[in-house]
């Protein structure tokens, strides 16, 4: 039996592009310092105590802040964009999607999607670009497993292309001019919403004969239970948010998982945190670590730097998976030292689903395939828009025969010739 403890931490060092600048400023100015983002002042916050104050201050000290393009393109009906009571109610409705029972019902489908994908990767004669392929995999998981859409393969491929156009422009300058990134984002949103509406209508008509409930079924039921039946627009925004939230984050973590397994093939694993941190607007002036944080300013709580500097981790630079084992449980020593999924009232809603997906991927990778780095050295890592290797990570996958030996391409060709 394969036991996988899945954790995320940055202690195993790779060269991370763009991170040196912020960490050298942190070393110079301390855990709370002023910087700029796109010409606007921003307070960057590191360290469990400081981060705790930001995350627990949601709705009274600070409020979530997404760039305007993201707010407009994702739409007003999303959990991430809503605040106050609307946010609380939406979380209640959405949390049913991620209950233990719901996750159990998705599990066989997640396994199938991952097994099919690994088979395809292994039968590919060349090395594959892991990050690109992991993006396709998480998109497929969101569409087929979470939303239960039975869209034909060709249409799914087309939808994925439109979705990529959407994601590429979700953090663009909000200038609505012909050929601007923002305009391309709006067009992609319109096409996606059309496709989603068609799939939702078809799904609502033919729910018979289904062997499991998906997140969309649960969402529709849960909204009725809470007396807030969702409109078609809310359903479309909700499904787009689920795809968006699951997509880049889980693809980043899946790629890091494969990279870690390549570096440390015999070990349990830890992963890089896909999201560097979260942004907030200050609602009222407050004090943090001896500094006045003025009302109206922007704050970014840093997940990455907080992990990097957490005093609870012994030898933080050392790859040491046992630190998360039952005997040591270093991550339990303070809730806000270890926060790959954020914290407080905006803790990631999909964290249990993401962990389940990554565990299934780890188990299937270990039991059904072997893989080798196809480049001489490991690539550099970039943090934008989420953490990923700059070249996507080039890896050759092999299937395994009944003796757990690699099936080499020549053997595969011979086998198919004899059939
Ligand atoms: C490895 C994968 C993932 C990571 C690292 C991750 C990380 C995060 C983080 C750090 C936040 C908080 C952002 C903030 O404080 O502003 C967040 C929020 C959120 N995540 Fe995830 N996430 C992952 C996967 C998922 C999945 C699979 C889903 C759903 C299908 C999801 C749904 C959400 C939603 C809806 C929110 C907004 C919550 C709110 O504003 O109340 N995430 N995620």
Condensed summary:
This protein is an alpha+beta fold and 419 residues long. 47% of the residues lie in helices and 14% in strands.
Could you please describe the fold and organization of this structure?
There is one protein chain. The protein is of the alpha+beta class. The protein has a single domain (2-415), classed as Orthogonal Bundle (Cytochrome p450). It is 47% helix and 14% strand. The protein has helices at residues 19-29, 48-56, 68-74, 84-95, 100-123, 130-146, 153-168, 181-205, 215-225, 232-263, 303-309, 351-368, 409-418; strands spanning 6-8, 16-17, 32-37, 40-45, 62-64, 128-129, 269-271, 277-282, 286-288, 291-293, 298-302, 369-373, 381-382, 388-389, 394-400, 406-407. The strands form five sheets. It has a five-stranded mixed beta sheet with strand order 3-4-11-8-5. Strands 6, 12, 15 and 16 form a four-stranded antiparallel beta sheet that branches. Strands 2-13-14 form a three-stranded mixed beta sheet. Helix 5 (100-123) packs across helix 6. The chain starts with 5 loop residues before the first strand and ends with a helix. The model is unreliable at 1-15 and 413-419 (pLDDT under 50). Protoporphyrin IX containing FE (HEM) is lined by residues 64, 79-80, 91, 242, 245-246, 249-250, 253, 274-275, 278, 340-342, 346, 348-350, 353-354. Protoporphyrin IX containing FE (HEM) binds next to helix 10 and helix 12.
């Amino acid at each position: 039996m394969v036991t996988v403890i899945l954790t995320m931490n940055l202690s195993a060092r790779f060269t991370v592009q763009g991170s040196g600048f912020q960490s050298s400023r942190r070393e110079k100015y301390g855990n709370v310092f002023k910087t700029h983002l796109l010409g606007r002042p921003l307070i960057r916050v590191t360290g469990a105590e400081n981060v705790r104050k930001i995350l627990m201050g949601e709705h009274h000290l600070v409020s979530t802040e997404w760039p305007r393009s993201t707010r407009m393109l994702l739409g007003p009906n999303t959990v991430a964009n809503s605040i106050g009571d609307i946010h609380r109610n939406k979380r209640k409705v959405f949390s049913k999607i991620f209950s233990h029972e719901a996750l159990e019902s998705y599990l066989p489908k997640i396994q199938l999607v991952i097994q099919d994908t690994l088979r395809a990767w292994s039968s590919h004669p060349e090395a594959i670009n892991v990050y690109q392929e992991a993006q396709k995999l998480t998109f497929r998981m969101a569409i087929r497993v979470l939303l239960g859409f039975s869209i034909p393969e060709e249409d799914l491929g087309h939808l994925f292309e439109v979705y990529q156009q959407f994601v590429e422009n979700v953090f663009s300058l909000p200038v609505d001019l012909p050929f601007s990134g923002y305009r391309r984002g709006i067009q992609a949103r319109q096409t996606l919403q059309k496709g989603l509406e068609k799939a939702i209508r078809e799904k609502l008509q033919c729910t018979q004969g289904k062997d499991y409930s998906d997140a969309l079924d649960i969402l529709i039921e849960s909204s009725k239970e809470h007396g807030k039946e969702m409109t078609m627009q809310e359903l479309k925004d909700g499904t787009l948010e689920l795809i968006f939230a699951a997509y880049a984050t889980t693809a980043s973590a899946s790629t890091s998982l494969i990279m870690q397994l390549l570096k440390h093939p015999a070990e349990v694993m830890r992963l890089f945190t896909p999201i560097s941190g979260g942004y907030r607007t200050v609602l009222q002036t407050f004090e943090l670590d001896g500094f006045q944080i003025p009302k109206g300013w922007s704050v970014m709580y840093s997940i990455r730097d907080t992990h990097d500097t957490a005093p609870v981790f012994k030898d933080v630079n050392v790859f040491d998976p046992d630190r998360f084992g039952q005997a040591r449980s270093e991550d339990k020593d303070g809730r806000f030292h270890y926060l790959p999924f954020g914290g407080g009232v905006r803790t990631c809603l999909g964290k249990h689903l993401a962990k389940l997906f990554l565990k299934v991927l780890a188990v299937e990778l270990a039991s059904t395939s072997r893989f080798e780095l196809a480049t001489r050295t490991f690539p550099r890592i970039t943090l934008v828009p989420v953490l990923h290797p700059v070249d996507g990570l080039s890896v050759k996958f092999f299937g395994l025969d009944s003796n757990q030996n690699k099936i080499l391409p020549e053997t595969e060709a011979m086998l198919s010739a004899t059939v």
